[in-house]
Structures are given as C-alpha cells and as structure tokens.
Amino acid sequence: MRSGILLAAAAVITCGAAAGGWFVDLEAGGAFPGYNDVQVPNDSTGTRFSLTEALDVPPVPVFRARVGYTTGRHTFSAFAAPLRLEGEGTLAADVRFRGSVFPEGTDVEGLYRFDSYRLTWRYLVHESPCLSFSAGLSAKIRDAEIRLSGGGITESETNTGFVPLVSFSLAWSPCGVWGLLLDGDALVGPVGRAEDVFLGGTFRADDRLRLRLGYRIVEGGADVESVYNFTLVNFLMAGATYSI
C-alpha cells in the first residue's frame, strides 16, 4: 500500500523546494521502544500490562520509503513504513490476554507490529528565501498486530483501519545549504491519537539531492471496547530525498 504527501514534503522541503516533478524519499535508522501499554479486551477480563516492561524488547533497524510528485504548490505522495518489535521474558504476574491466561513465571515471546501506509496531499502555504511551510492531509492505513506466546498458548490481536491525519512541514534554511526541518502527521480524536513527527538538520547536496539527520517520534493508540493500546517509539533516522 502507499501513502502521502505529507512526510514526503516534510523530509524533503528546504528553501526553493517548489520546483515540480517526481521525487523519491528514503529513510533508515534505529527504532528504540518506549512504553507499550496493552489490554485485550479492554474490560475486566483483560489484564493491562506493559509489553516493554514485561519483556526485553531491543532496538531494531527500520526503513521507510516515499514516492511523490510536486506540481506548483501541491505535493502528492505515497508512503510505507513497516515496524516490527519483538521481545521475550518471564512474566512477573498473571496476564489475561484475549481470553487466555498466561500464568506468572511463564516464559513468553511477544510481538508488536505496526505497518503504516499513507497517501498525502500538501499545499505550500508560504515560501521565502529561508523559510517554507506546507500543510495538508494524510489518509493512513494502519495494519497492526499484538501477539503473545508462551506455555503452549499463542494469542494474537490484529487490526487494520483507516486514520485521517493532519500533515505539515516547516523548513528553515538561513544559509541555503544547511537547515532545520520539522515535519509530521498527527491528529488527536475522542478515543485515540497518532503522531509521527521528525525534527532534525538538513543539507542540500545539490539541486536534486537533499539529506537529513535527526530524531523521529511515533506515538499514539486507541482506548476502545475491544483493545487498549498506547505506544511510544523513538527513532534516530537518516534520510535522503532525490528529485528525478
């Protein structure tokens, strides 16, 4: 599947980025798990616990890709970002998950998968020699899974759904070559929230190639009848955008 305009422009835009045409944006780095609170189902029959506290979940390498097209002040893009965190450990207390009980002392393995696909549209609201700002919308499809295995039991909660997001990009490049970029998609709703935001430095290698290095945060989740899950993942990322 594919995604959007938004982060594409974000990780891409520096001063003078209004030139039209196709671009490819690649980003790679490391994902460092933060909190990951889970309860399935979200009622008295499920145990609320932290995957990252109950299990040892190490950092993992990650990769993101975007393809987009800019015409005038409009940018359209398709984006994919798979994420898979795995861990193992011994439960310090009983965990009731999807109707099964994993007893205290059970050696378990856990999986948290969150694959994100977005289609994005952004509009270049402002552009000056050193500052640009774009805003728009992203249509996100998330394909998620939480799995727990141990003691001869395996339970998995999967969910695929649509999430609308607000997309934005703010790029500051006072010297024309080096700059700063704040770029992301985010939205807060009545039962949940989602944020995927990058902050870092940019370098314009030439008219076609732009590089970046910085910090990305992905955070959010939902509090609904079937599941409670809120997750934070920190990223250290390097990226490149090439205009074709």
If you had to describe this structure to a student in words, what would you say it looks like?
The chain is built from two helices and 14 strands, in the order H-E-E-H-E-E-E-E-E-E-E-E-E-E-E-E. It is mainly beta and 244 residues long. The protein has a single domain, classed as Lipocalin (Beta Barrel). A hairpin with a 2-residue loop joins strand 9 and strand 10 (153-172). The longest helix is centred in the first third of the chain and has 8 residues, at 5-12. The radius of gyration is 20 Å and the shape is elongated. It starts with a helix and ends with a strand.
The general outline is elongated
Largest sheet: 10 strands, antiparallel, barrel
Q: Please bin the fraction of helical residues.
A: under 10%
* Domain count: 1
> Within the CATH hierarchy, at the fold level, what is the topology?
Lipocalin
What average pLDDT do the residues reach?
92
